[in-house]
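Internal tracking record. Fields below are filled automatically when a chain is submitted to the structure queue. Please do not edit lines marked as system-generated. If the sequence contains nonstandard residues, flag them in the REMARKS field before resubmitting.
Queue: standard
Priority: normal
Entity type: single polypeptide chain
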Amino acid sequence: MSQMNDACRKVLESVGNALACGVFDLERKQAIEIVHVPEFSDVQQEMITHAIMNLFRGINAKLLANRAHEQIGKPVMKEKGFREIQMAFEENFYFSKTIKNGNAALILVTKENTNIGMAWVQLKSVIPIVEPLIP
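SYSTEM-GENERATED OUTPUT FOLLOWS
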């Protein structure tokens, strides 16, 4: 197993009710590494890949961020977009953070009864391991 796979597996095993952990290349628009529990399907994996790309690189994300900045009197964002996103759905939480100067993203998908603080701590703990391995 690669170091990146090991890092994702560490998060998956350290967070209660974690379903998947992965690293995505936002420039090339592809998953680099995804580790998941058996019940997490390939279809779900594909959907997450597309969702992450749209959330961090989609035109709507940039428009939303820029409009929010305009509303509070700040200049339009020069950044590539959001740095962290946490979403809650009916049965799942999604935690995602850009890394590698916004060119990649780390994501964790859990069931809704996960400890949110622990999820963020574990996800961020592997950044120093994963970031240097991203091409």
